[in-house]
Fold this protein.
Amino acid sequence: MISHPAGRIGLVSLLAFFLVAAVAGGSSLAQSGTTGASGFPVPRFVSLKSDRVNVRVGPSRDHRIGWTFVRAGLPVEIVQEFENWRRIRDWEGSEGWVFHSLLTGRRTALVTPWESDMITPLREDPRSDARVVAKLSPKVLSEVGQCGQGWCEVSGNGFAGWIDQTRLFGVYPDETVE
């Protein structure tokens, strides 16, 4: 038993540290393991199934339409689920609600949509020293094949190869996609 006051303070501090660490760690684990009403993880990336997708300000048809996407295949991030409605976020950070049947689990990505003029090299292999097979402009839409170790295999209209994963909106940094 510790009878010295300084010893008690040290013990209490140590216990407080472990309590805070346990709570913070549990919170982090809970966030990474969150599932939505669909049973799938939230957040996650999906893509638009239709050429015309109304984005509403709330999760029902009674809510007004905030804006409309007019291109199928665009990647969006599901950040919340409510019954059959999905709260999505686009590459610009805009959020709204979409009915679940207007989304698909097909993985797509936009190349550096946050850049205005930076060209991104598409490589033959998943290595920074691999031969460049194409140079992609910002906002080029691509299908995501697989991702791992910081690289994604992508393809699109007339191109296929590997791209640095950090240059894409539609996959998380260091996410593995199979």
DSSP finds one helix and 14 strands in the chain.
